[in-house]
Amino acid sequence: MNIDWTKVTEFFAGDTQADKVVPPTGYTAWLTLFSAGAMAFLAVFVLAFSFATGKLAEHWGADLSRSSTIKISAPQDQLDSQTAAVLKVLETTPGVAGARALTDDEQRALLEPWFGPDVPVDALPIPRLIEVIESSAGFDSDGLRLRLSAEAPGATLDDHTRWRQPLIKAANRLRFFGWMSLLLIAASVGAIITLAANAALVANKQVIDVLRLVGARDTYIVHAFVRRFTLRALTGGAVGMLLASFAILLLPTPQAEGGFLTDLGFVGAQWLWPLIVPLLAGCVAFVATRIAATRILRETP
Amino acid sequence: MIELENIAYNYGGGELLSEVSLELSPGGFYFLTGPSGAGKTTLIKLCYGALVPTTGQLKMFGQDRRTMERDDIAQARRRIGVVHQDCQFLNHLSVSDNIALPLMVSNRDLLAEAVNLKELTNWVGLASRAQALPPELSGGERQRAALARALIMSPDVVLADEPTGNVDWEMSQRLLRLLVELNRMGKTIMIATHDLGLIRAAKSQVQARVLRISNRRVQLAGADL
Ligand SMILES: Nc1ncnc2c1ncn2[C@@H]1O[C@H](COP(=O)(O)OP(=O)(O)OP(=O)(O)O)[C@@H](O)[C@H]1O
Ligand SMILES: [Mg+2]
Q1: Hey, whose CA ends up nearest to atom 7 of ligand 1?
Q2: Membrane topology type, per the record (chain A) (predicted)?
Q3: Does residue A2 carry a pLDDT above 70?
């Protein structure tokens, strides 16, 4: 799209003469200001909400590394043979990309937080751990459990991170609803501003008649009204956006990783998003008033 | 300036005007008369392009009304000063701003026109009311303000619809003198009125042609007026 910036600056610099011809007050002024403000406030919150759910889904997804653990608890003399049996089963299981028994050192490192650095791993009847890496397709855990119970009775499969899968799905769905809400809010702003602009223009039909009578061009009239409404929507949008942003800033700071409500907010460049909200309100007002004004002018000779 | 050739007009019902041929030539002074409801205002509206003739051809400054774009009409209206029957002001602007409105909408430099505006406001005797709002004016003051607004662009044609409708005899004589003075400056003037006294008074000052609407036709009235 080709934007003529001189026209854009002209639009905002304005023409005090042209501004004067549109009567200043009326309930439509407040209607536009208020609805743009309220909708911008909501939009900023929904934006924050969408970002938070996005963050949440990501967070949970990252935790869900595609690995599971098989734990083998068996008498010391059977441990090695059962480990070998499990590894053999895993080799022929579809969806398993790799498997590896943890070494004594690695097991000691895992136990260290609980028992200190000098755990005599050899002397303790601790289970052996096998790390299973899934392929992207994933394996059928029930099938694997069944085969394990046949080949190695001491083996148990722990795929604890899998339970989060539905949560991620839910988070993604929430994010989708967030974007849907944004769309609906934008549509409502459009509808309200169109109504307000129409009401204002109908109320000012006589003004438009007089302007045409004294030789005003359509562009002059449209411009005067469009400017008034766009600036109103921009102002309302900016006030709503600022209030919502402050409200979000004032929310308690995150306590624990992955908290949901406490994550509501914007980080870094995400703060640019709320800035778009009033601009969007302005654009909607611009288009809506333009259409309404053009329509009314068609009835004015 | 403005030519009507065999035009007819109706508002959707029966024919209001038919077979109207008329030419407003430069420097002419015209009266348009006829009973109430005869179509004087309608004819004036046709002349400044607010209505389109049902049939026939209407030309504004040589351009056919039918082929004119909306911007062409706006442009033509800057050369036609209209005193509307019910004045039509922007009630939120001062009298002075209302008089200056045609300058504003054609993006003229108001500062450059300030002297002109002041002189014109004085000329119609509204200097002391310049900052008042239109609803605060008397009927006669409104009509003088409307006349001033019609003249601010120094138009070639002035169309005045009942400019003396709300004023006493003395004031109507003053308004008439203003219009006669304009005509002497070379402007084309058309006044719609049913005030025969006004027409008689004008005839002693200016060569006026009197057009009468009767039976949907426009005829040149004889010397009986
Ligand atoms: N917008 C309109 N729609 C339908 N009919 C109209 C419209 N305007 C005027 N008329 C009708 O057309 C006829 C002529 O109206 P017009 O205003 O031209 O009369 P006029 O000669 O100016 O009368 P007056 O001396 O009372 O001002 C009237 O019968 C009026 O009711
Ligand atoms: Mg009339």
Answers
A1: B11
A2: Multi-pass membrane protein
A3: no
